[in-house]
Amino acid sequence: AQSVTQLDSHVSVSEGTPVLLRCNYSSSYSPSLFWYVQHPNKGLQLLLKYTSAATLVKGINGFEAEFKKSETSFHLTKPSAHMSDAAEYFCVVSEGTDSWGKFQFGAGTQVVVTP
Amino acid sequence: EAQVTQNPRYLITVTGKKLTVTCSQNMNHEYMSWYRQDPGLGLRQIYYSMNVEVTDKGDVPEGYKVSRKEKRNFPLILESPSPNQTSLYFCASKGLAGGGETQYFGPGTRLLVL
């Protein structure tokens, strides 16, 4: 069975400071992991994905995430927050290869960016 | 343009009145899925389909039906809607070939059941 926990429901950062969104997962098999972003009243956009290649994954808009198997974590970071980063972020886990169908979403982290 | 479309985008209905939310993709993807999004719960998977005539339950299938008669369409059916099915619904699709893990999401359907 798979599950995902986003450790912070809300994160507030100042513009220009680093962003850290924490995600822990559990999986019986080698997982695929994803981060999605949802801006207010918008659909979901993929930021980045890990699928058993490099453990440090770079995504769009300056985001990156590191897969740490020993810590069962997949934290999302960005060195310098921008006002446009204000949104809700979801960590997602899927077990096994991409032929498996089940995806588990975290509860989401709401990011607020202050000037 | 590659996209997933859903209709309707907004729907208000009454308890017990059957409804269907359509989902269509133009990317020739094998996999399609339905999710519901509720505050504080993230997205929860309702049903998914690995290909035509192949469907499986997700985490919250109760009260929903799906069918996959054609590759491009994956309608979500609520035979007898109840107020606890008031939610924001997303359809998604992805390919199954190598590197096809990325799901593409539709714009969402906001449903209110009175």
Short précis:
By secondary structure, chain A is an all-beta fold. Helices cover 0% and strands 55% of the residues of chain A. Chain B is built from no helices and 11 strands.
Textual characterization of the structure:
The complex is a heterodimer of chains A (115) and B (114). Chain A is built from no helices and twelve strands. Chain A is mostly beta strands. In chain A, the strands form three sheets. In chain A, strands 2, 5, 6, 10, 11 and 12 form a six-stranded mixed beta sheet that branches. In chain A, a hairpin with a 5-residue loop joins β7 and β8. Chain B is an all-beta fold. Chain B is built from no helices and eleven strands. Chain B has strands at 4-7, 10-13, 19-25, 31-38, 42-51, 54-57, 65-66, 76-78, 87-94, 104-105, 109-113. In chain B, the strands form two sheets. In chain B, strands 2, 4, 5, 6, 9, 10 and 11 form a seven-stranded mixed beta sheet that branches. Chain B is globular. Chain B starts with a strand and ends with a strand. Classes of the chains: A mainly beta (115), B mainly beta (114). Chains A and B meet through β6 and β11 of A and β4 and β5 of B.
Layout of SSEs?
The complex is a heterodimer of chains A (115) and B (114).
Chain A: E1 3-6, E2 10-14, E3 19-21, E4 23-26, E5 31-38, E6 44-50, E7 56-58, E8 64-68, E9 73-78, E10 87-95, E11 103-105, E12 109-114
Parallel strand pairs in A: 2-12
Antiparallel strand pairs in A: 1-4, 3-9, 5-6, 5-10, 7-8, 8-9, 10-11, 10-12
Chain B: E1 4-7, E2 10-13, E3 19-25, E4 31-38, E5 42-51, E6 54-57, E7 65-66, E8 76-78, E9 87-94, E10 104-105, E11 109-113
Parallel strand pairs in B: 2-11
Antiparallel strand pairs in B: 1-3, 3-8, 4-5, 4-9, 5-6, 7-8, 9-10, 9-11
